[in-house]
């Protein structure tokens, strides 16, 4: 790398002052605003069961400003070990500035409330405070599916969608993010509704597909049953399917029989990081939720 390109890279990493005008009071729709406050570049961190990934994100465009850093999730995945690894991801990227983080649990005011697929010690852990202490910067923490949903609503398959939109992430578990008129209803845990006496994610997640060695048609049957349950409860206008398995949507979408329009996520791997960054914009006005 030349000295000059090195300088450029570094300057891109610095959080920039935004030139965008402040939003009008009340214009807090998730799909409508991004550049609020002084920063437009935020580091997005996506904490998952197998990897912790992160990259600086331009929150106006959703673009990752450099290649993402990925480090394996430590085992056992105690909250302290996760924090250490997350800090490593941020420092390996050379980032200093605000951080937004997605985590696979219910998150209230930065504190983890549940632990369906992570170490149970996570419950009650103040992840925001721990990351803030280690990184000495402003940190926000949101549910991982909410983060992915925020990105899809802003830049992806839900862009400009005004109705009731449900984003599903099919992975180790089933994550859900619910939007009404572009606003997020945070921490919906609809992957845990009961289907045939079991937690839905136990039957219809990607992990369940692999565990039970299901072919695509049989997997589609399980997903279909889940989608019917969900749509009878919520009557959404659009369902966005994300998670790694959404890349193969052509294998199981044709078997779905539910009434709601189902589309695949557009941001693929980057939704979790980009959405976490959106949630991390200082002033938090970019993520006005439907309180
Ligand atoms: C958790 C959710 C999470 C989802 C996807 C579920 O088991 O309860 O909080 O969003 O997995 O990671």
Molecular structure report:
By secondary structure, this protein is an alpha/beta fold. It folds into 2 domains: 25-147 and 271-287, Nucleotidyltransferase, domain 5 (2-Layer Sandwich), CATH 3.30.420; 159-266, 2-Layer Sandwich (Nucleotidyltransferase, domain 5). Helix content is 31%, strand content 22%. The protein is built from 9 helices and 15 strands. It has helices at 3-13, 79-92, 127-135, 144-155, 200-204, 206-211, 216-234, 249-252, 271-279; strands at 41-47, 51-58, 63-64, 69-72, 99-103, 107-108, 111-112, 139-143, 164-170, 174-180, 183-185, 194-195, 198-199, 238-242, 261-264. The protein is globular and about 50 Å long. The termini are far apart. The structure holds beta-D-glucopyranose (BGC). Beta-D-glucopyranose is lined by residues 104-106, 114, 116-117, 143-145, 169, 171, 173, 175, 189, 191, 201. Residues 104-106, 114, 116-117, 143-145, 169, 171, 173, 175, 189, 191, 201 line the site of beta-D-glucopyranose (BGC).
Give a quick set of tags describing it:
single chain; about 290 residues; alpha/beta; Nucleotidyltransferase, domain 5; 2 domains; 6-stranded mixed beta sheet
């Amino acid at each position: 790398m030349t000295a000059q390109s090195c300088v450029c890279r570094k300057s891109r990493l610095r959080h920039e002052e935004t030139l965008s005008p402040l939003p009008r009071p009340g214009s807090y729709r998730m799909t409508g605003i991004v550049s609020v406050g002084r920063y437009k570049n935020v580091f997005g961190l996506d904490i998952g069961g197998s990897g912790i990934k992160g990259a600086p994100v331009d929150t106006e465009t959703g673009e990752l400003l450099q290649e993402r850093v990925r480090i394996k999730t430590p085992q056992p995945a105690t909250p302290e070990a996760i924090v250490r690894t997350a800090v490593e991801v941020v420092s390996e990227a050379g980032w200093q500035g605000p951080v937004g983080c997605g985590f696979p649990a219910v998150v209230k005011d930065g504190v983890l409330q549940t632990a369906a697929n992570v170490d149970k010690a996570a419950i009650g852990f103040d992840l925001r405070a721990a990351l803030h202490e280690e990184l000495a910067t402003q940190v926000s923490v949101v549910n991982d599916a909410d983060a992915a949903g925020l990105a899809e609503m802003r830049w992806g398959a839900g862009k400009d969608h005004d109705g009731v939109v449900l984003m599903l992430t099919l992975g180790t578990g089933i994550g859900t993010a619910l939007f009404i008129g572009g606003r997020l209803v945070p921490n919906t845990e609809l992957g845990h509704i009961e289907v045939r006496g079991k937690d839905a994610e136990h039957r219809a997640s990607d992990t369940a597909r692999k565990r039970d060695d299901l072919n695509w048609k049989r997997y589609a049957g399980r997903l279909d049953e889940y989608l019917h349950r969900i749509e009878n409860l919520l009557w959404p206008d659009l369902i966005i399917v994300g998670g790694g398995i959404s890349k193969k949507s052509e294998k199981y979408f044709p078997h779905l029989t539910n009434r709601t329009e189902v589309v695949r996520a557009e941001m693929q791997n980057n939704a979790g990081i980009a959405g976490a960054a959106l949630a991390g914009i200082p002033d938090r006005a970019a993520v006005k939720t439907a309180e």
